[in-house]
Design brief:
single chain, alpha+beta, DNA polymerase, domain 1, five-stranded antiparallel beta sheet, 9 helices, about 45% helix, about 20% strand
Amino acid sequence: MIAGVRGTIAAIEANAVVVDLHGFLIRVSASTRALAQMGGVGDAVSLVTHLVVREDALALYGFPEQADLDLFLLLLNVNGVGPRVALSVLGFGDPGTVFSAIAEGDAKLLSKVPGIGIKTAERIVLDLRGKLPKHIPSGASPTTGIDQDALEALEALGYDTLEARSALSGIENRSGLTVEERVFAALQRLGSR
């Protein structure tokens, strides 16, 4: 199996990146979030990958970090979730945010992913809740009361739930911060995007 690719970006397509491996071009499907983080044509890229073998095709899926690949593989075990839907979930939020939504049973948040309805979101939560890794990526711990207050404050300011959760999960050493400090730090993260 192909465990990863390292090379130069030859082209970025809507749902994939073409990587130049010293003259050998390979198309790697990736989430929109991963594609946005990669840089431009000519930049170096390193991805961990998963090869999906079908009767009529070989498809290589690439991820910037192992946590993304781990979540992708977990999602593929859910009935009704294929590689494209799994990539949509990964494009919707960082692994920490998605793991957090699953751990908290937040099917409503997952149902906002394009291609996933409420029933599929509930199935994802039901199937994966007990299969989450022991070490969840940083920022994916269940929402504390203070985080919930900060989340609601960000939503009141017009940010959607995913943006707000992602911004809050990215705050380092947030355990000693007040609600106001967390909201301010999250707004700084949102403003830098």
